[in-house]
Backbone:
């Protein structure tokens, strides 16, 4: 079982991440799953009827707007970074939090490296599934890289100029 | 000059610490070169042809004697005694050791400098007019706005991994000396009919492989909304800019694909959600920042200094220098002085550690400690009394700053090219030198008059060749270095992209080619025409004919 960072701690991950081409067949009724967007869009009704926990994941080229009417059904929304240098999901994260009021777990998945965690946290992520070859315990320190920030973002609603 | 408070200081110190740990982990083999790459780039650190290159930010070109002395120290201790002024007002060191970079960043932080976001696919140094705050044609001083944008863009968490690099320039004057038309975002200060201040917003300018002049998406943005509007532009770009092809990833490609009108609508729609949010600028913040840029107290003079004018009429050498390197000032009896970093046979923009120290002394002795870097790769002393100019000239001559060529053919903008840069297709510095040698007669050079000649060693166009009146681009043809020439580019308010003259030339042909272009100009010009004016009147054909006729 993979360990992830949640909040400021390393925890065992209880969620199963389904691949992009996952089908509705063979899904068990129990167990916590994070399904790809396409599966959700096609089988929302069946997925809602399960007893297990439900999350959805968006790829970098998928838009937050495609799930904004469904947010109450998700305990987890995971945003995928196919490569760490693809920054689109930073915007999706901010939109989900700031504009559409999503309150559940927001998790980064994929090519997630420790030196991106500070930025991710500022954009509203609160859980990070680091790439498997990275040690989440060592990465915790990077959440504290900076002790002050200039801009307003999800973690800090006021820019520095309204606080200094 | 903006002075850091405890918050600003903490942020640059945190950065130096963070990077020290990143270098440590890299050297310990904890991550791959590919993973280290964006981290070092966002700190301006390239691995170049022979050694790493470190690009240090000079926000909007503002320096001080203290900072120059620190740069001199870094040049001496960590480099081979040289620094290089870039075409975006920044400073390069070409020979630092990777292991030393954390120490260099710490040294920089001690004088409120840094290398944050000087490279990588993020928001880069905001640039402006080198005569900000002293130009007579200024509507507003752009520097406080540049500083506000600097703070907003520094470690912006949402925009650290954009599709491609992103450059913003701000102009506050009648004439556009900041070249805003060739930036991803160009902001032009304007007043509306009610006299309120705002910005005209241009988007999608840029050079590189697909040169374009920015298009207006908003005629008037009230100043309070500057940051929320920038945020909207960046968000649209971050979400929809192309990421599949590096050469099509700049915002200009997105703006062109959508059309400026449609892109503008998307920005407006996004902005409606951000408008009036907490990032809306306040009068208090504007005042807080603007107070650092208040014109220092100057002596009052009735008009031009008589002694200065006398010296000009009695000393030809001084007059030549004053004509080219001394610029009008808003305050009577004062002038701005350009220290030319373009003497023949020195790489354009290069400056030694001794010269950096000397420039710092000049700034202290004659310019209230202030000095600026320009995108023409020179330095400017902004507050010189006219009565001191003769003395300043003599000191400039001793230090190699007095080449009287500002704005002339030999004041060449030039990238580091194949001598240093691993991206380059061809060398650019030797071409600059051979052209400078061809035009080494000062009277002739002055007679040719104002001319911008820009050289880039590759398509990335760091030497801004597209907007040179004469542009030279290094190209690779089957492993050999060739040079393509363009004419008619301009970077000011009526920015234009140059047109290609024709087939490219070998390096040794370049001085003759430029000579022929100048001959056509001299033979066709009217008394008041500059090179660019004559070109615009008579068109490409006569130049083409002259240059290529000789090849047969």
Residues:
């Amino acid at each position: 079982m993979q360990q992830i960072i949640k909040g400021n701690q390393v925890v065992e991950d209880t969620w199963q991440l389904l691949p992009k081409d996952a089908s509705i067949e063979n899904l068990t009724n129990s167990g916590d799953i994070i399904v790809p967007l396409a599966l959700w869009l096609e089988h929302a009704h069946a997925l809602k009827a399960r007893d297990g926990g439900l999350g959805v994941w968006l790829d970098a080229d998928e838009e937050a707007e495609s799930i904004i009417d469904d947010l109450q059904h998700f305990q987890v929304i995971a945003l995928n970074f196919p490569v760490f240098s693809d920054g689109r999901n930073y915007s999706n994260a901010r939109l989900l939090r700031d504009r559409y009021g999503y309150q559940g777990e927001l998790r980064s998945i994929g090519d997630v490296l420790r030196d991106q965690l500070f930025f991710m946290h500022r954009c509203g992520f609160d859980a990070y599934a680091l790439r498997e070859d990275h040690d989440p315990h060592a990465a915790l320190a990077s959440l504290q890289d900076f002790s002050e920030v200039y801009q307003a973002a999800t973690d800090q609603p006021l820019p520095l100029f309204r606080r200094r | 000059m903006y002075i850091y408070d405890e918050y600003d200081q903490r942020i640059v110190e945190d950065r130096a610490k963070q990077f020290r740990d990143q270098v440590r982990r890299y050297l310990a083999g904890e991550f791959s070169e590919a993973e280290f790459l964006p981290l070092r780039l966002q700190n301006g650190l390239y691995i170049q042809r022979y050694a790493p290159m470190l690009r240090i930010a000079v926000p909007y070109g503002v320096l001080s004697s203290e900072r120059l002395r620190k740069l001199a120290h870094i040049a001496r201790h960590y480099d081979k005694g040289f620094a290089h002024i870039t075409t975006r007002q920044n400073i390069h060191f070409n020979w630092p050791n990777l292991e030393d970079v954390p120490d260099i960043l710490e040294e920089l932080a001690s004088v409120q400098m840094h290398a944050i976001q000087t490279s990588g696919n993020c928001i880069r140094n905001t640039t402006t007019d080198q005569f900000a705050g002293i130009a007579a044609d200024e509507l507003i001083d752009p520097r406080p706005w540049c500083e506000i944008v600097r703070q907003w863009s520094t470690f912006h968490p949402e925009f650290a991994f954009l599709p491609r690099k992103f450059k913003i320039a701000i102009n506050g004057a009648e004439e556009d000396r900041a070249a805003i038309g060739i930036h991803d975002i160009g902001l032009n200060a304007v007043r509306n009919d009610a006299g309120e201040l705002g910005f005209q917003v241009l988007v999608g300018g840029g050079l590189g492989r697909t040169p374009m002049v920015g298009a207006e998406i908003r005629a008037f943005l009230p100043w309070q909304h500057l940051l929320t509007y920038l945020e909207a532009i960046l968000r649209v770009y971050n979400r929809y800019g192309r990421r599949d092809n590096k050469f099509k990833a700049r915002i200009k490609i997105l703006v062109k694909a959508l059309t400026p009108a449609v892109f503008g609508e998307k920005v407006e729609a996004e902005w409606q959600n951000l408008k009036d949010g907490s990032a809306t600028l306040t009068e208090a913040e504007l005042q807080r920042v603007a107070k650092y840029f208040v014109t220092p107290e100057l002596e009052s003079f009735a008009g031009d200094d008589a002694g200065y004018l006398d010296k000009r009429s009695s000393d030809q050498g001084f007059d030549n220098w004053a004509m080219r390197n001394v610029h009008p000032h808003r305050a009577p009896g004062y002038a701005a002085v350009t220290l030319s970093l373009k003497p023949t046979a020195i790489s354009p923009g290069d400056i030694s550690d001794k010269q950096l120290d000397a420039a710092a002394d000049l700034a202290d002795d004659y310019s209230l400690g202030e000095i600026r870097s320009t995108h023409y790769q020179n330095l400017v002393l902004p507050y010189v009394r006219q009565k001191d100019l003769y003395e300043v000239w003599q000191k400039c001559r001793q230090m190699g700053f007095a080449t009287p060529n500002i704005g002339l053919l030999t004041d060449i903008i030039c990238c580091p090219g194949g001598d240093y840069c691993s991206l380059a297709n061809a060398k650019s510095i030797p071409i600059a030198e051979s052209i400078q040698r061809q035009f080494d007669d000062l009277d002739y050079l002055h007679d040719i008059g104002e001319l911008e000649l820009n050289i880039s060693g590759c398509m990335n166009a760091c030497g801004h060749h597209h907007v040179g009146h004469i542009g030279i681009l290094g190209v690779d043809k089957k492993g050999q270095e060739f040079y393509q020439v363009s004419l008619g580019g301009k970077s000011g308010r009526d920015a234009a992209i140059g047109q290609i003259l024709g087939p490219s030339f070998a390096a040794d042909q370049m001085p003759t080619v430029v000579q022929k272009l100048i001959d056509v100009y001299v033979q066709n010009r009217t008394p008041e025409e500059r090179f660019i004016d004559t070109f615009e009147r008579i068109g490409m054909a006569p130049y083409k004919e002259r240059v290529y006729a000789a090849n047969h």
